[in-house]
Design goal:
Length: 288
């Protein structure tokens, strides 16, 4: 086609796709380019704005490596990651929520009732719940991969004062489907702002805060894997999570439990004499 105009460009693009292109690629890329063209026309994109956008993407690539995933962060703050989560969540199971960049794939085994708090200061948080299916039956042998920030708001990979594996643990449920562990109350924190995504937040007058949360990845044979988070209902950032990760069913009460009531069956049993916090969070998996 030699007579390309702004009105026929999208059709010309689609016409250039080969007959044997993968049908899903045709659908996804075709739609993306259609929306991209419509967007440029709608806002009358200038050359300067186009250059600024290209330079932003280049800098996003420059700062990225296998530990720093600036494109993922960009997707997070634009709401795309959460939208993909919501499109793929099944309403009969626990909602999924953002994975974030701080999961590690080889977390150490944590016995049921095990402790992740260790030497860290802060209120003891006892977390427990049942991994179950949509019929309410407990799932045996499910793996529950847990991670969170230290009380200073940093994940281990961000903090030279923490061991690689601090506040990371992997539990396997027994026949009753139960997981249980102690840690310290996580705190709200900011997503990294020292790169191009920080510039966007700043330019948009947006803050970089996330409400405090515990992360979970739950896997079991025959079920869809679940990536999710649990948030305390009194967190000040609950209604303004910068990565849009909060869902109603993921907001739980951290109950203050009276001194002297810490239960048996935990690594810390017999050592916690003061008040402590408790959160009960069941995780419902959907069959594949
Ligand atoms: C996190 O929860 O760890 C996280 C999620 C998205 C961006 C940055 C951090
Ligand atoms: Fe997080």
């Amino acid at each position: 086609m030699r007579d390309v105009t702004k009105d026929n460009l999208t059709d010309v693009f689609m016409g250039y796709l080969g007959d044997d292109v993968n049908p899903r690629l045709r659908e996804v890329l075709g739609s993306l380019v259609t929306h991209l063209h419509a967007f440029a026309k709608e806002v009358n994109l200038t050359h300067e704005e186009w250059e600024k956008g290209i330079s932003f993407l280049e800098r996003t690539g420059d700062i990225s490596d296998k530990e720093r995933h600036e494109f993922v962060l960009l997707s997070d703050v634009l709401g795309l990651s959460s939208l993909v989560d919501m499109i793929n969540t099944r309403p009969e199971g626990t909602s999924s929520s953002v994975l974030g960049p701080f999961h590690i794939s080889d977390a150490p085994k944590l016995a049921i009732g095990g402790d992740m708090k260790g030497r860290f200061e802060g209120p003891v948080l006892l977390s427990e719940g049942i991994v179950k299916n949509t019929e309410g039956e407990p799932i045996e042998g499910a793996t529950v991969d847990i991670w969170q920030t230290a009380p200073n708001g940093l994940y281990s990979s961000q903090d030279p004062d923490q061991d690689t594996y601090s506040f990371h643990g992997l539990q396997t449920t027994a026949a009753d489907g139960r997981y249980a562990f102690t840690s310290v109350r996580p705190v709200e924190y900011t997503v990294p702002t020292d790169g191009p995504v920080g510039e966007i937040l700043n330019a948009c007058g947006r803050h970089p805060w996330r409400p405090s949360h515990l992360h979970f990845i739950v896997k079991a044979e025959g079920y869809r894997s679940l990536v999710t988070e649990v948030f305390p209902e009194d967190d000040p950032y609950l209604d303004q999570d910068t990565v849009f990760g909060v869902r109603n069913d993921l907001v739980m009460r951290y109950q203050t439990m009276p001194a002297g009531s810490f239960p048996e069956g935990f690594e810390l049993s017999g050592t916690v004499n003061d008040e402590y916090l408790k959160v009960q969070f069941d995780l419902t998996l959907v069959k594949t």
